[in-house]
Amino acid sequence: MHALQESGATQDKAFRRNGHKLIASIKRRVKDGQAGVGMVSPQILARDSGLPENWIWNAVESNLIEAEFKPQGVKWAHGFEGKIIHVPIDFGKDL
To answer: Which end of the chain has less Cβ packing within 10 Å, N or C?
Structure first.
């Protein structure tokens, strides 16, 4: 993440657009969740957002969303690292 920030890549329009696509996809999944469920696979997010699965995987692994876009709490579900993403039910909502 630090290398991307230092190189200025995080300010690239395509990079920012991809980040916003991912966040929008995550928000839709949390909104559609039932009974506080906030779990989603990278494959579903890739299908929903049109982003490559490896881009999503790297975004979660590097903490990109929190570091660059501020919504907090997206991380790998304990015991399902690399397979299932845990999303806080209040993801992206103003406190």
So the answer is: C
